[in-house]
Amino acid sequence: MKNLYSYLDSASGMSEFKAELSPRGGYITFSNSGRRGGAKYFQIGVDNLLQTLKDMLTHLDVFQHLTKYDETEWRNNGSLFFTDPVANANSTVQTKPLFSTLSKIIVWGNQPELDEYDTDKDIAISENYLQNTIQKLEAIAEGFKPNMSINTSNMKRNKGDFPLQQIFYGAPGTGKSHKVNKEIQNTPNALVFRTTFHPDSDYSTFVGAYKPTMKSADRLYSADELIDKLSEIKTLGHTYPCHKFAAKYWCSLKGLSAADIKRIVVACDFPESMTVEVGKGIAIGEEMAKHVQNDKIVYSFVPQAFLKAYVAAWQNPEQPVFLVIEEINRGNCAQIFGDIFQLLDRKDGVSEYPIKADQDIRDYLAKEFAGYDLEANILSGEELVLPANLHIWATMNTSDQSLFPIDSAFKRRWDWKYMPIHDAGENWTIALSDVEYDWWDFVEKINNVIGNMTSSEDKKLGYFFCKACNGKIDAEKFVNKVVFYLWNDVFKDYELSDKAFQDGEGKLTFNKFYTPLGDANEATIKTLMENLGVSTSDLISEIDEEAVNLSNDDLSALQQKRLDFWTRYLKYAQNDADYMQYFGGRQTPTKNYYCQFHVLQKKGYLCVVIKHKANKLFVKYETMDEQLYNTLYSHKAAIQSELGDINLTWEGKVGTRERIDIYAEYNVDFNNEQSIFDLIIDRLLRMREVFDKYLNN
To answer: Last residue of a domain, which of 371, 387, 418?
Structure first.
């Protein structure tokens, strides 16, 4: 009977699905068929396979009929009955490769009876076959079995207020990455490790692997090794001047401390004064090296994000360490995590089930942990155990189309944080040459259309879908990013029957958003905005009366005056806790005569308008929704009663004027700014409370 290593080696030669036992540990590396862009490789532990065979034996009534490969049957039953998390995950995303690997294992366990089995299509399942395989595999697994008696009592635990494993998910542009960065902003950069998953990501790019590097052909020796070299020379009876020795090993000596160099000199019976000769020898060696090409390609183990975060967490037990994975669903998680998947099960923040590290990782960890007071198995790198201060956070864009599915076994090991679409209060605009449209108003209205047409939340736009420059999204960026996404991803499978996508000639096709020269067509953008009813950022059609008939110099001076006013106001308002609770998100002063406060979660906002020449101040609720205005107007008496001394003027829709105002007007003295600031804060808070109450009802 062939051993498992030899059997898999020979069986793989006759199979589309390769499988081999690692000579360094109890893992089997297996692959898919490679029919779709080349073979992809995965790992599963011998102990994981052993548990899976036991599960099949326990549920023999289910599996004994599944002797032919049927993807649906194997995927569904694997998900239901495989208790091992690695096998469970692979059963749903790499069903056929796992099936073929299990079949090979059973054939190996029942040689020579099953030698003629086609392991890519068939699997031999019976009580006898499974028991034979389990018995033989247990003998192998025992040698690689993780030490489950590891003592975690001395492990430092510091979960803090952070979830251990959390995925932030939502539509594109909802601020998922921004939220992560904000949550961990007080963590030193050295304790935050980032990676981004993509279709080519695998275990080696996540954990680590050997990579080629340029390195001096001369081996680097430690101080003790150099002492041995000198001792060997003396034993052979050779005379070796100190400077000559230093010239030969200059590269190694250069990296040692002065204390180590002195120790080498003394240990080999050189006078201490010879340390000067060592310095001369190093200089000679460096000069000689300038004229000799002695670099070569060598392979060394290079740790990736996971191992770097893992090491940092164990080395800094009192501080939280974060591993941030962007776009986690753009990579094959089962392939990328491999056996690390098992570590995600935690008890008191510490991995409940340690895994064996392969020799490469073990050697790397042993060096990194040298001198640290850690549990023996952790210190040696023999076992991998996630400490309680290591937090793994990820982001997931729910609308992406080029994705790998995340199975339920993987999902349930994470906390999930939904990021809703919301007004970030940045007051961004879509800036055309002669008009600016309110970005948030556009986002709200296009999302209504998306929801009605696609019945999907995932396709909607978040506030940060398109990044503004100095608060403005120009026409080129709007078309190339926003319009392209809408036409290419959101509505490509839908008839653009909504009135929003019509012009005088018919449908707004994508090419209409460009001029014959390839520039953004602002006329078409305006058509889209008008169809959607997007408000302009200058409060629709209101004219800045103070700016009429003024020269450019006068207007610039006036803008500076307003900027100074709003700057001082916003600084003053920060001292009011109630104001900051509701309006603290706006921190950017404006050069305009108005300042908007996006806090009401309906189709409107609060706005403060200043008129320096007229010594006037207005606090307004503004909306373009006539029905909403009429609803509020029906409660006019109640609203006025609750506001008390705030006397409101109600301006409904008049003629072609689209904006509707409900406002309070005040005569003010701009020389007494503090009283004006107090008035603004008081009116904003009181109007917010009352209007929000009736808007929600």
So the answer is: 418
